[in-house]
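As a warm-up, study this chain.
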Amino acid sequence: MVSERAALAPPRLPGLDARFSRIVAVPGAGADAGLVREWHCLDTGAQLAQLGAPIAGTIVAVHGNPTWSYLWRHLLTASVRAAAEGASAWRVVAVDQLDMGFSERTGVDRTLAQRVADLGAFTDALALDGPVVTLGHDWGGVVSLGWAVDHPESLAGIMLLNTAVHQPDGAPVPGLLRLAGARGVLAASTVATTAFLDTTLALASPALDAATKDAYRAPYRSAARRRAIGGFVAEIPASGSHRSHAELERIASGVARLDVPALMLWGPNDPIFGDRYLDDLVDRLPHADVHRFEGASHLVAEDRPYADALLAWLGRNSDRLTGDDHTSARQPPAATSPTDTADPPFVPIWHGLDRRHADEDIAIVDMSSRGARPMRRVSWRQLDDRVRRLAAGLHAAGVRRGDRVSLLVQPGPTLSAVVYACLRIGAVVVVADAGLGIRGLTRAVRGSWPDVIIGEVPGLTAARALGWPGTRISAAPLPAVAAKALGVSYSLQDILRLGDGGSLPIPPGPADEAAILFTSGSTGPAKGVAYTHAQLSALRDVLASHFEVSSETGLVTGFAPFALLGPALGARSVTPDMDVSSPRTLTAKAVADAVRESDARIVFLSPAAILNVVDTAAALTAEDRVALGRVRTFLSTGAPISAQLLEAAAQLMPNATPHTPYGMTECLLVTDITLAGVHAAADAPDAGVCVGSPIGSNRVLISALDPDGRASGAPTAEPGVLGEIVVSASHLKAHYDRLWITDQAAARHTERLESSDPAVRWHRTGDVGHLDASGRLWIEGRLPHLIVTADGPLAPVGPEQQVERVDGVRRAAVVGVGPEGLRQTVAVLETVPAAARAGLASADLSRAVRASSAVPLVAVLVVPRLPTDIRHNSKIDRSRLSAWAERTLAGTRPVAP
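Now compare it with the structure written out below.
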């Protein structure tokens, strides 16, 4: 074979420091034994030596097909910069695989096993004996993992971008690769033309600029230099008979035995290596840290700031990566919470069912959508029997501890039974409600990559049409034709039959993952929040203790997250007649009917639901008002609520103590305040909404804002400090699901707190506020909604409260317009009566609003309705309003935001 020697160096290319480029002569391995091959690589070693920085270890970065080491340019630059600033120095060696990039063209067809051997020969030539952290993307991920499996004595850690080590049984090879590898297409698309290369570069999101695309094409200007692009595609083992299949299986099996720290950064929109391959790798490396960059695609190294994330991860794990025994197990200890060690001992979430398993009293009443179906009443005995049969049936159907089960079922007896059945066998329930919308729900389901989907027909239809993963189980029996069309394997009736007389497996422990609950998505894509069994049980206990819930307490649950807690509390619960995915559908009459049906003493509602309950109070009869008079506790949960609205609701339940707890999906109960507390706070000079004092052993601190609006201060309890709210509780989440970077951001500046008490974890909420001298918390907005003016950061809620005192203003949002750091404030109003169209407010209203506000307003605008988040219908979307106000004031036709 004719061999084309390596070029001396690549040409000058954007973003690439030419000093990193070098050629390494490497004695060949495998089929190349006795030969010397010339490798091109990018190496930061010389620059680190000039800095005099002690090297912590080496990152060996391996590109895929059809890229080259240029893919890693940002990491090389960032690593040298970090070392210059005093951070740990990690040498980065980014190779061009043989026949790729600017390495030698050997003229030899290289199998997967040969490429793994090639990389081993290269690291031997550089005398890299550890600690080594491998980094790979695409087929470079497979090659780097092959090296990792073969070099346990040097391996310190693994880092991966979109790649795969196993093709799932029955799953087709990704379409782009299948097309490129088709007979008659392979040579034309990969070698004779630049089609495959161009298609790969087009996957970047956002699109690459012309100069960057040209840099990727630089080593592949001729068909002769593109030969290995086709060779790589041909090496994909699409069947067990392929010559590389055995090597891929060897690597896949070996990866599952690796116990070193691992990080996976993923672009979920990748049409080649999507989430199914991530899920397979997570199964093999369950201790790995994972972050999915929502919206990123195949070229995640181009799409997102991956280099900063890699270096942050290396710093976070430096002790385990660079320790003397760097081949020992590195799985971090399981996150602990006060519940793990506190007395009394752990009591599982399903204990309330066990305790009342023979009770014929009513446990759940479902009044929702009564016009379409009859009201359902389920006794404790019936509920416990169904939970046990479903649990045994799911286990018989193959559902195991740790398997993820996505639930697309409306709140009610069926959903409650399925939830507790899953929890009983250790399956992880994934709850993302329909209020996220079809796009948000798709993102949530695919992001969590469930093993099983249990759903009603609309959810199963979406699952089929949109390619959601998981074995499908229908909530109700379906005709055979419909079941086949939807890909349904079982109905819940089938599962119940499987569970008849079946035994239950050993129950999960307190540290086992129990649930993934999705946030509302009001400030970005909805995030999956993971809870352990200990944390769910702690939430139950805090709720029961603080609000004095007992088995004699009936609950009306018009707020979905709490609808599932009735069985855990051992209390009768009722879902009123409403569409639970749309809180505004709840009426005062429906609440009264639910209270009467359940003899409820506690009512849970969301702010949006309360708004409509108050607006429909005129329809209440005298009998309805008597029923509501029996309520003793009323809670508004989900978002802060004004004193006026809370008072209006209290008038409907005159004997109830109104509470408005503050919390979030990550920590459902943090503080609490009663209406009396709200009135007491009304005389305080503080800005914002007072949400009361921490519940039980919960703690709240504030991380002060700097002049640029960043929460950079050490968390403190000092009163009057405006900043990000930082919370701790026994029921605080375990982590965000597959969002490692987000997890790190949520724990910023809490290291000192956690080192003083390792049993207590902290969470940065993203909310802005302050503590007063009495320890009460005041909410003043969200970090993304801060208006950074020339005088510093301004939180919006205080100015909004001032504006809302003006006659005719129903709700207000204060947002910023103009350049960052010099933002100007604008008031956007929802009025009574509602404005006919969006635009400038009248001169009289503008004057009154400006006079009421302590901050200068450059404009006052009106809209028919302020935009809110899609789940709670109550959190104002200030980011959307800000963009709309910018356009409107710039002269764009003021269409409603």
